[in-house]
Amino acid sequence: MIPHLLSVDDLKEDFLIDLWDEALKNKGKNNKNLKNKIITNLFYEPSTRTSSSFYSAMIRSGGTVIPINNVKFSSVTKGESLEDTIRTMACMCDGIVLRHDQIGAAKKASAVSSVPIINAGDGNGEHPTQTILDGFTIYNHFNKSINNLKITMVGDLKNGRTVKSLVKLLNRFSGNSFCFVSPEELKFNEKLPINSYETADINEVLNGTNVLYVTRVQKERGSIYDYELSMEQLNSLPKDAIVMHPFPRVTEIPVSFDSDPRAKYFDQIKFGIWCRQILLEKVLLK
């Protein structure tokens, strides 16, 4: 059991492999493992997939969810602090899934919470549960291997918390190399892995890419940029490559690519339920 999940740093390799293998075995099947358990979905930012995925995962394991998917309808609008909200909800549930617009909010919440905190995204910081399902998608496609891959990250790499978390995870495994593709103003602003390359021209790196991880431009965080990958570019990827996207999608990937077997972004959504179900069972069953 991990008391809180605040960062990818909290996810050890043996824990992850065990979680992924259990998710692959269970495939989101219903059970009663979390009967009489309650989580709170506490979301200070809009969410479709993450909030619904945790909701679905909890219900599939027989548990219950208190949905606070819009804090505009909570006492936050009256000036209640994050700490008081966390202390309050901890009295009513067994775990809190927290999405917040500020980096470090999950860590701040964990300092006062009497129940486990699961970071569902904190500003442009981290998104560790997205990393769990992203890693699983790669692990599942490449025959339970996550080594010796060429990973190309494209889009808003400055503000993309999913990119930061996934790079942190994949950099632990041997033989992986990274290509970072973005305009200068949206460059990856974390410490680059040793085996990495930066460019503004995606056409330089598509050949030989095993994993193309596409992100949208986060205009809500001040980014100004538009781009769309063409079918010609996507078709130039190797036949055994995969294309991933944490969604929401705007213009980055044409809808006409969705039927291509290399498109894995809807699988990511399905895998998110599988992985979060196992994660919740590991966190809440003491």
Would you mind describing this structure in some detail?
By secondary structure, the chain is of the alpha/beta class. It has 2 domains: 8-128 and 270-284, Aspartate/ornithine carbamoyltransferase (Rossmann fold, 3-Layer(aba) Sandwich); 130-268, Rossmann fold. It has helices spanning 13-26, 49-60, 82-90, 105-110, 128-141, 161-170, 231-235, 265-284; strands at residues 38-43, 64-68, 95-100, 117-122, 150-154, 177-181, 196-199, 211-214, 242-244. Helix 1 (13-26) crosses helix 8, helix 2 (49-60) packs across helix 8 and helix 5 (128-141) crosses helix 6 (161-170). The protein is globular, with a radius of gyration of 19 Å.
Summarize the structure.
This protein is an alpha/beta fold.
Which descriptors apply to this entry?
single chain, 286 residues, alpha/beta, Rossmann fold, five-stranded parallel beta sheet, four-stranded parallel beta sheet, 9 strands, globular
Topology:
Layout: H1 13-26, E1 38-43, H2 49-60, E2 64-68, H3 82-90, E3 95-100, H4 105-110, E4 117-122, H5 128-141, E5 150-154, H6 161-170, E6 177-181, E7 196-199, E8 211-214, H7 231-235, E9 242-244, H8 265-284
Parallel strand pairs: 1-2, 1-3, 3-4, 5-6, 5-8, 6-7, 8-9
Helix pairs in contact: 1-8, 2-8, 5-6, 5-8
